């Protein structure tokens, strides 16, 4: 795993904390711009700059994802949490492509894969989310497992670079220009370039707090 981000927020109705951690496990296979598109923007024609331009592209895409708080192109993430909630928002999932698995440790300590009939996947909301299905209940978890009781694996991002809004790509071009012009990071005006790029990435997606489990079927003790 890489890009591991701890974030603890929210409480359930009993005052218990929702402990969340998410990490990217599969990187995007492509970047928002091709090397040739990036070179055209930077006004390069020679091939000996390809490796540097590719590094700039990866750095610019990473900066964009950090600014917008969502994965840009197809990539896989895992979310680890301590307990279930009625609504589980998925960090970095705007857009959310799919949920691969929801796994949990049952009361005996065995890891199980939850049936997809128990939950609904919402790919329209920003970020995407998992919602407990009507008339369903989450399974009981191993009582003393504090870390990684639940693991959700999901895929986020646009499926092709062509689907990325042009405004977002323009921010990446601006960031590329700054990286190329200020390779040592010593330009006193670098903040202006970053602000210009971030102005193209102003649609930051905030991940709401989990909603506690508030419904139980009458037959559940």
Summarize this entry quickly:
The chain has four helices and nine strands.
Polypeptide structure, described:
This protein has one domain. It is built from 4 helices and 9 strands, in the order E-E-H-H-E-E-E-E-E-E-E-H-H. Helix 1 crosses helix 2 and helix 3 runs antiparallel to helix 4. The longest helix has 19 residues.
Topology:
Blueprint: E1 2-11, E2 17-26, H1 35-42, H2 50-68, E3 75-81, E4 87-89, E5 96-105, E6 111-113, E7 119-122, E8 129-132, E9 150-156, H3 166-181, H4 190-199
Antiparallel strand pairs: 1-2, 2-3, 3-9, 4-8, 5-6, 5-9, 7-8
The main sheet orders its strands as 1-2-3-9-5-6
Number of domains: 1
Shape: elongated
Uncertain spans: 4-15, 215-221
Helical proportion, percent range: 10-25%
Average pLDDT level? 86
Find the count of extended strands (DSSP E, 2+ residues).
9
Beta-strand percentage?
25-35%
Structural class: alpha+beta
What is the distance, rounded to the nearest whole angstrom, between the alpha carbons of the first and last residues? 38 Å
Number of helices: 4
Order of helices and strands: EEHHEEEEEEEHH
Described by strand count, sense and barrel closure, the largest sheet is: 6 strands, antiparallel
Report the radius of gyration as a whole number of Å: 21 Å
């Amino acid at each position: 795993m890489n890009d591991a981000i701890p974030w603890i927020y929210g409480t359930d109705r009993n005052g218990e904390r929702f402990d969340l951690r998410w990490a990217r496990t599969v990187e995007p296979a492509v970047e928002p711009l091709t090397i040739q598109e990036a070179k055209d923007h930077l006004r390069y024609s020679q091939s000996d700059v390809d490796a540097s331009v590719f590094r700039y592209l990866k750095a610019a895409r990473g900066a964009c994802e950090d600014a917008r708080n969502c994965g840009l192109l197809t990539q896989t993430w895992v979310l680890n949490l301590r307990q279930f909630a009625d609504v589980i928002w998925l960090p970095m999932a705007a857009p959310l492509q799919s949920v691969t698995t929801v796994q949990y440790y049952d009361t005996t300590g065995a890891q199980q894969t939850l049936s997809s009939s128990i939950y609904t996947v919402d790919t329209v909301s920003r970020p995407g989310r998992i919602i407990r299905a009507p008339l369903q209940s989450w399974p009981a978890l191993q009582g003393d497992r504090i870390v990684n009781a639940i693991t959700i694996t999901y895929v986020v991002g646009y499926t092709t670079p062509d689907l990325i809004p042009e405004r977002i790509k323009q921010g990446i071009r601006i960031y590329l220009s700054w990286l190329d012009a200020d390779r040592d990071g010593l330009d006193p005006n670098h903040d202006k370039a970053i602000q210009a790029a971030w102005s193209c990435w102003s649609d930051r997606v905030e991940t709401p707090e989990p909603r506690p489990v508030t419904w139980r079927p009458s037959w559940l003790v």
